[in-house]
TrEMBL record, chains A, B:
PANTHER family: TRANSCRIPTION REGULATOR, PADR-LIKE FAMILY, TRANSCRIPTIONAL REGULATOR YQJI. InterPro entries: Tscrpt_reg_PadR_C, Tscrpt_reg_PadR_N, WH-like_DNA-bd_sf, WH_DNA-bd_sf. It holds the Pfam family Vir_act_alpha_C. This is PadR family transcriptional regulator. Residues 173-198 are annotated as: Disordered. It comes from Nonomuraea typhae. Residues 90-167 form the Transcription regulator PadR C-terminal domain. Residues 7-77 form the Transcription regulator PadR N-terminal domain.
Length: 198, 198
DNA sequence: TGTCGCATGTAAACCGTTACATGATTTT
DNA sequence: AAAATCATGTAACGGTTTACATGCGACA
């Protein structure tokens, strides 16, 4: 459902073609929502069939820009104000960190350094994007909200990586592989806080 | 692919049943990776068929705990160290913020306040989880990395929401709905920085 | 004239959610 | 005895990715 809303959000700001939208998904939106062109084009057709957007005149090189309709604006507002936000998250960087105890600390540190570099580079990109906004325009004022969230989340990841590298460096080394409590027992009961099962 | 690795990560720490894993996906892992029970059970069967995990003796109430095999550990380590991390993100809270200019500022502020409360509540939960870890165990030391990332990201979201509420309060009010540059034109060319198309 | 970037799409495979279905054990 | 929680699953649907396919226009 949210891909539709992402497309309506972009088209509410200005008319765009599928290709333009693909660029956004590789730019600002990259840290917020992602979709590939093969998903975007059919969805635009569906939105047009539902009269939430309308195809404009064809441009050069077979360009097909769409604009939002009044009904599309109504649907977008309703989604914003009268539906629950889906807070489910997926972050592979952090997922991997849960598994880092199975490799030697030095390799874990190497992994964390790579991740830190990735997030630093993204942070630079986001800051550049922020400077390109024209805050006299309402859509850009809202985009600033999104970009600022991206910046703060990336800063959090970079500072986390710094901290994680230091933390992992203090881990006891050696035999991480099989150094877990004997896995033969069937049921480990009793006051078990933390992330261990029951 | 990453669901498999999430399951292997959990089973590397200790034997668990599908139900146990479901609890993790509702707990620590919620901010990092999410999967529903209906996805977990079949995937466990597939992992067992591929000999990356092994079914232990059946427990009470039809409980079926699995343990990781040596081959499973090998696959987990290879994934960690020899494959690229998928950095694609999806965050509906921030996606919605890109669209907030289409509603009156006071409604935008109400939305942001709700989001702030949600993230504050989650942050409290994460901090409690952090205190429940037993740092003498290697898997919990790695879990601390993940939990700390969750905490820092949630803190970033809460402080972002604070800032966003103040920012939106200064937005000019009135006619946000149709206050965008006339949408009739076909192609808006020329030096266009920011998030506008071409 | 060849290559690069613009621009749009289809089909199949894969991943994830929703709706449905069942039964055992513990608590009230 | 009823309700809540534990515990596992299947089938259909919908969303997402991967592989494939095509053609125009600008520039070297």
């Amino acid at each position: 459902m949210s891909l539709r809303m992402a497309l309506l959000t972009l088209l509410a700001g200005a008319p765009r073609s599928g290709y333009d939208i693909g660029q956004e998904f590789d730019g600002v939106l990259k840290f917020v929502w992602h979709a590939k062109p093969t998903q975007v084009y059919p969805e635009l057709k569906r939105l047009a069939a539902d009269r939430l957007i309308r195809e404009q005149d064809e441009g050069s090189r077979g360009r097909r820009p769409y604009e939002i309709t009044d009904e599309g604006m109504r649907v977008l507002r309703t989604w914003l104000l009268a539906s629950d936000t889906d807070h489910s998250q997926r972050n592979e960087t952090v997922l991997r960190s849960f598994a880092l105890w199975v490799v030697p600390p030095q390799e874990a540190v190497a992994y964390l350094r790579e991740e830190r570099e990735y997030h630093r580079a993204r942070l630079r990109g986001m800051r550049a994007l922020k400077n390109g906004l024209n805050l006299r325009l309402a859509p850009d004022r809202a985009a600033l909200l999104g970009v600022e969230a991206g910046i703060r989340r990336l800063e959090a990841m970079v500072s986390w990586a710094d901290w994680a590298i230091e933390t992992v460096s203090t881990w006891p080394t050696g035999m991480a592989g099989t150094g877990r409590p004997a896995s033969g027992g069937t049921d480990r009961r009793g006051g078990n806080p933390g992330i261990r099962p029951r």
